[in-house]
Design brief:
This protein is mainly α and 75 residues long. It contains 2 helices and no strands.
């Protein structure tokens, strides 16, 4: 009886690994590759947009604090 239970446990463990864990790992890897490809494509199309966004948000945050306001002198 002990060997029959051990055989069932090994069988169910095998089914769990081959039927659930391996497909989930493959799908996760595939989705990660697709996101990386999309990010790379977006950076290729708009190489400077992320830098411009970060500087404009930094300026807005600085102005929101009230420490410094940018202005131009008029002649």
């Amino acid at each position: 009886m002990k060997y029959v239970l051990l055989a069932f446990a090994i069988y169910f463990l095998y089914r769990f690994i081959s039927g659930f864990l391996i497909p989930v790992a493959r799908t996760t890897r595939q989705v990660k590759k697709q996101f990386d490809a999309m990010r790379e494509q977006q950076q290729y199309q708009h190489p400077f947009s992320s830098q411009q966004q970060s500087t404009s948000t930094a300026r807005k945050e600085k102005n929101a604090e009230g420490d410094y306001l940018e202005f131009e002198e008029l002649n």
